Amino acid sequence: MSEPALPRLIVLPGLDGGDLLFENLRVALAGRAGMEVVPLPVTGPQTYDGLADGLAASLPQSGDYVLLAHSFGGPLAILLAGKAKHKPKGLILGATFVRNPWPLMGGIIKAALPSFLHPKSLPVIEATLLKSGDHETAYRIYQHLSEIGVNVLSERVKTVLSCDIRKALQTLSIPVLYVQGRNDRLITAAHGQLLQATGRTVQIAKVDAPHLVFQYDMALTMETVLLPFLRSLI
Amino acid sequence: MKPYLLSEVETYSYLLSKSFLQLTGRPILPGLPRDSAALAEAMFNAPCPIVSHGTEADPIFRYANQAALDLWEMDWDTFTRLPSRLSAEINSDTQADRDSHLEEALKHGVVEGLTGVRISSKGRRFEIRDTTLWTVVDTAAIRHGQAAIIGNWQYL
Question: Which residue has the higher pLDDT, B66 or A119?
Answer without folding.
Answer: B66
